# Entry
Amino acid sequence: MNGRVVFLVWVKLIRQAVAHDLQFRSQAWLHLLASVGELVVGILPVLVLTGYADYDPAIAQASALTVGTFAVTTGLMDCFVSLGLRRFDLALRRGELDLAIIRPVPTVFYAVLRWIEPTELGKCLTGIAILVVATRVYDLDVQPQAVASMLVWAFVGSVAYCAFWADLAFLAFWVQSIQPINDLAAAWRGSGQYPRRFFPRAFQVILVSFAPAALSGSYPVEQLLEPTATLVFAPIVLIAACSLTAFVWRRGLVRYDGAST
Amino acid sequence: MRVRLSEPVIKAQGLGKTYQFHRQPQGLAGAVRGLFHREATIVQAVRGLDLSVGRGEVVGLLGPNGAGKTTVVKMLCGLLVPTTGSLEVCGERPADRSHTFLSRISVIFGQKAMLWWDVSTRESLKIHRSMYGISRDDFRTTVARLGDLLGITDVLDTPVRHLSLGQRMRCELALALLHRPTLLFADEPTIGLDVQAKVTVRNLLRDINRTFGTTIVLTSHDMNDVEALTDRVVVVKAGQAAFDGNLAALRAHAGIPAEVVLTYRDTPNLPPDVSRKSTKDGPRGIRLRLGDQPVPELVHAAARWGELVDFRIVEAGLDEVMSKVFSEGGERP
Amino acid sequence: MTRSTALVFLALLRQEARLIAQYRWWLPAMQASVVTVPLISLLVWRGAVAHGAEPPVTRDYLTTYLVLVSVVTTLTSSWTAKFLAESIRSGRLDAWLVRPCSTHLAAAANNVAEKVAKLAVLLPLVVVLAIPFHDDLDLPAHPGRWLLFAWALAMGAAMTFSLDVVVGSLAFWWQDVTAVDRFRHLATLFLSGAVVPLAVMPADWGPFLRTQPFGYVVAFPIRTLLEPDAADLRAGVAAQAAWVVLALAAARVVWVRGLRRYHGAGA
# Structure
């Protein structure tokens, strides 16, 4: 399949989504505010919690950076991936996947990634603002390789979490009406905005492996503040997550027989 | 209180409906401005409509898109409040939406399902049994009778989502008729159905009208529905009743002359003036408008143009009649 | 009329139960997501306390609150606004308006039936969640407290359903009410105490948190089990009842006015 064609279609889809939002501006503004509001509601509990842990300034610093990073990665996921995954169960039941299968582009791309919500990028802006303010307030002095490590892990972590979410959403091939699994994936993602040290040890491992919510939030910040040599595992995580999702998708697609009516 | 047999089921006088819309200015700034100042637009959808429908009649309410017939039907079944005029349906004011009124009417929306999608038709019928206060015995008898009449006995326990469109429409009919309504509104009842299913639904509506004496108000763009079902048509145009009468009168009103189809053994040799006025109908046939000329004279003349093997008089199709009636003057103000 | 309404409600309830039974995985998946947020909160708050954090409530209070919160959230939630708005927008409301029964009966039946089913799935999950923390669970034994809890839950549920009808009915005037619904959900999520117990919010916010309505949806029903002060509870019950009456009145006014507009201007 021609990657250039896929990219051009994707760009067109983004332009279409932006044009749509520009057309319905007042609604777009409201959704933008709502998406930022959702983010704030998500991060306030973290700030309230860390407010009671002021005995250790490192916790407050890590928390602020984590919620900032989490906001950016969440904004990107929600802009480009989440809606498609949330609609997947419905698309499968209504037979809409037929329309994706007959297109000369990869089915998974057309079925999932064509649903774009530019207003969700408001979270990214908020996240960047939080990161800038946190950097100033805590007067951070970080090495370029630590920043690189954080960026790589944030990217890999976001892809890995999208892949994990997709694995859950694709269960719709096997199980009827599994739509709320998306709420589960979104709720679990929220654990990535808390410093990992607050979780019991078993959960700390789960959060960076089997259900990698921390990889798109707290873990990249850990790598920024205390860099380790784990960067070499990033490509492995990326390949493993994507391979598993590709495997689930292929197995699922074999079972797909369109909507009954 | 029951409707007296002699009284019309629908009585409307000078019925009118005006809509008022507010134009939303473009853009966010416009939307904010719109919070303080809005530009109102008034549209008169129906004006001065008089209508009387007797018990047991089947009336077709026809009109081009935007003529106001949906507004009329919505006022008749209590979904819209008339702006002017008086309206009485089944002896009640529809807009009051009283329990008695709603229990006497029924509506089939061709494009909106009344049946619950994920359960069987029988389950939906049971809910309507509670809703319309039907006794257990009456319910059993009516369901059996409707099942036979509509041919749905075998599918009553199948989830609605597994039914074909034709089966679903018949089940919708069963649901609509369960409480033996005095008046049934059928809004595009055959839309989306295949030819065979359309014929079935038409026959059923006819049977229901004959068997239960149900008054039916039909709105449809399918002229075959109208031709097969209605005794009387009311054409709504620009919010007014442009015509009210039977189909023969409607044809006469349209004034489209009948046509003659002449078929010859070989290609006919037509005089120039006839050739100009005629159209081809197959390799050896022609069509001519039937004017004032007496038919025997026309047959005599036609026999001279070639070896005539067939002669038929064809009335204008209802589609053509409607198209003519719809296009005659009268724009909405 | 009232008896007939009750019969229709029961018929609809039975139908909803049958419907829910068809989608076996839908409920467990949904309830798993409902338990996830309090589970995360529970783990991090206990973790923070273990690391030396000092919130203004005890560890027992936090644990009991966060174990109960998913049950309370489930029982007081409502999801009617979206469907109501859609039926108004698409004109499907007509199919209900031509029937001789209340338009909201089906939504209420769906709400009750789904909650019963959700509770059946949720309770085992909550029990599993509670087992590791059973030493820190502090629940009252007095039946009166549990009755008060049930009353507060019913009031909370009535309030949410009424607010849902208000938001859904806005579709009589506006094409798209999803943004408003999102804001309402946000407010409920944060101000009800569904994510963070209101008791651990900054002390300065106290007066505001005590007067706003959303706290009576989640935090107050839990308080009826955890707060020992009877005078506080009496004041809470009165305030909750006032908010419920207000919400019901708002729902009635908005619905009647909206319907008048619908009857006046059409879908």
Q: What stands out?
A: The two ends of chain A are 31 Å apart (CA to CA).
